Amino acid sequence: VEETPEGFRAEHVVIKRALAGGGNVIGFLRTPTGKLEREELCQNDADIQAFFDRYSLKRPDNIPYK
Questions:
Q1: Could you give the number of structural domains in the chain?
Q2: What is the pTM assigned to this prediction?
Q3: Residue 22: phi, psi to the nearest 5?
């Protein structure tokens, strides 16, 4: 279990298309820059759940795709 970055909650988690290599990344959205904090590749539902588990966050019903 890792510490959630300061000021972030589960509502800040988004999935974006990866810039290199295709696929998607998941991370905490930093506004207004639109950059992701602690971003990591996510290829399937298990990767998404692992991200929430790593930070001890409850996974919301919908995760925004940016």
A1: 1
A2: 0.87
A3: 75, -175
